[in-house]
Amino acid sequence: MAKQNLSEQFVDILVRAGVKRMYGVVGDSLNPVVDAIRRNAAIDWIQVRHEETAAFAAGAEAQITGSLAACAGSCGPGNLHLINGLYDAHRSMAPVLALASHIPSSEIGLGYFQETHPELLFQECSHYNEMISNPQQMPRLLQTAIQHAIGRGGVSVVSMPGDIASQPAPEKSVEHALVTSRPTVRPGDAEIEKLCRMVDEAKRVTLFCGSGTAGAHAEVMEFAERVKAPVGHALRGKEWIQYDNPYDVGMSGLLGYGAAYEATHECDLLILLGTDFPYNAFLPTDVKIVQVDVRPEHLGRRSKLDLAIWGDVRETLRCLTPRVRAKTDRKFLDRMLKKHADALEGVVKAYTRKVEKHVPIHPEYVAAVLDELADDDTVFTVDTGMCNVWAARYLTPNGKRRVIGSFSHGSMANALPQAIGAQFVDRNRQVVSMSGDGGFTMLMGDFLTLVQYDLPVKVVLFNNSALSMVELEMLVAGLPSFGTTNKNPDFAAVARAAGAYGVRVEKPKQLEGALKDAFKHKGPALVDIVTDPNALSIPPKISAEMVTGFALSASKIVLDGGVGRMVQMARSNLRNVPRP
Predict the structure, then answer these.
(1) Intra-chain end-to-end CA distance of the chain, in Å
(2) Pick from 189, 188, 224: which is nearest to 205 by CA?
(3) Number of Cβ within a 10 Å radius of residue 454
């Protein structure tokens, strides 16, 4: 039996860790590893057109599966292209192993062709970042990298010079059992008792939920019922907590709607559950705040805390709920539910007025129709910018759908590459990329990846020929819009020329049929929808202090454009409010 080289051992360990595919672009220093993948039937090499796409795709796959995913780039510029997608994966706590192949080991530090220093470049977007400079470091170094990515939730980067990758693997190397899943974390009894006393002493409790409530929907609902608490959420918490929620008061933040802001400010005790919500201008300063998070470094970095709980949300609530006294007074909860319903009724009219005749098409209308037609288990990938607004306001969660975006890193061009990673996980599951024309054109080359692998991703393109979120930021800051317009082609024609299904929609009456036809198509499809660049209406009074980047410091709804089916959800919850 032929002796393994280091690349073959590297690939075998990835397979043992559950990696099914590696995304990347081939190139000299990376060739030994790619060749090892070619000869290993348990793992696939996914050729993309840009390494940034590779990292985004791996991050999306990891978020869908909860398991380790992998990407790679060749030396210098190749692996440097990974960095933006790796930042996104790391901030999304997606377990990703990135291979940054390197120049020949004898030339490191001598200004060699394509020389960079990966151990410095990737330091900020990884939990672990080391170079294999000697074959004897394998397999321990790679196993350590894998366990950092999985155990801490985020990125590990392994650099390996091409000449080292071709060397024989060390004999009798130690391969230990790999950690492939994370444990739950239960708080100590003393912390649970403190929290129990605070809940019992509070008359008005509000819960504000983030992505850390994944898998804890039932526990959150049981606790909310026991203490009669309204439940708000951040954008990343929407898919996990909004559905089947009779206590829902909407979302806080720039994209917020409903009564979430009021509920968090008018309570006695605010409990932050699994959220690292970054916009502290939306958090109160004069109520007691408790934060529960499995990542202790998140505790207290957004607001002053009266109690910090290090623990998994589900395990914490399982310990807490039986111990707190059941509350019977629903006055605060019912008042917030009514405020929520009233707030939604006030903005829904902007969406319902003559939208079926409006040209250019209202993007709100597109999002609402898309929500109606998409499958119950669709994976939506969402571009940063206005597509975030439409996803937040119009996509209806149900416990089976997924919504993935660059919600923490805020990168453009994320939706298409993330759709690639999501679709490779399951070709039979509907994957829809909600792309803006700005984001789509930034990495448009990887639309060809859909064609090459016949991935049935459906790209729904909100094409308003503008960077609308940037225009909004300029407007609020009192600046004229500048450098925000795009001269676009007929993207449907581009899609057809590439070998995919493409259709252009310019009138509202064409929309439903176009989406249905695209969804029926078995391969990749693009629906180029010409939308209204002036879809936003801004309140008559807005101050410069209201915006710092993406954060508003006011409770008003700034983006007035309807809320889709959420108004029906609010009405339904309101019907459950007891009448005096």
Answers:
(1) 82
(2) 224
(3) 12
Whether the CB-CB separation of 43 and 97 falls below 8 Å is answered with no
The Cα 33–Cα 17 span in angstroms is 17
Q: Are strands 547-548 and 551-552 parallel, antiparallel or unpaired?
A: antiparallel
Following DSSP, what letter does each residue of 203-218 receive, concatenated? SSEEEEE-GGGTT-HH
CA atoms of 333 and 260, how far apart (whole Å): 12
What is the spatial distance between Cα 343 and Cα 30, in angstroms, rounded to a whole number? 55
Q: Are 66 and 127 in contact (CB under 8 A)?
A: no
Residue 531 is given by DSSP the state B
Q: CB 41: neighbour CB atoms within 10 A? A: 8
| Per-residue CA distances from 297 to 188, 217, 293, 311, 452 (Å) | 17, 24, 9, 12, 42
Cβ–Cβ contacts within 10 Å for residue 196, how many?
17
97, 100, 101, 102 alpha-carbon torsion, rounded to 10°: -150
Contacts of 433 (CB under 8 A, 6+ apart): 381, 383, 415, 416, 418, 419, 457, 458, 459, 460
- Give the 3-state secondary structure of residue 579: coil
Q: Which residue has the tokens 């019992």?
A: 200
The predicted-structure confidence for 381-404, as pLDDT tens digits, reads as follows: 999 988 998 898 889 999 999 999
Is 272:290 a contact under the CB 8 Å cutoff? yes
pTM of the shown model: 0.92
363 burial level (CB within 10 Å; 0-12, 13-18, 19+)? buried
The 10s digit of each residue's pLDDT in 336-380 is 999 998 888 766 555 545 677 788 998 989 999 999 999 999 999
**DSSP code for 301:** S
State both tokens at 560.
């007035």
Higher pLDDT, 420 or 568: 420
Count other C-beta atoms under 10 Å from residue 328's C-beta. 6
Contact in structure between 503 and 491 (CB atoms under 8 Å): no
How does DSSP classify residue 176? P
Distance CA 292, CA 312 (A): 7
- Closest by CA position to 229, among listed 139, 302, 128, 333: 333
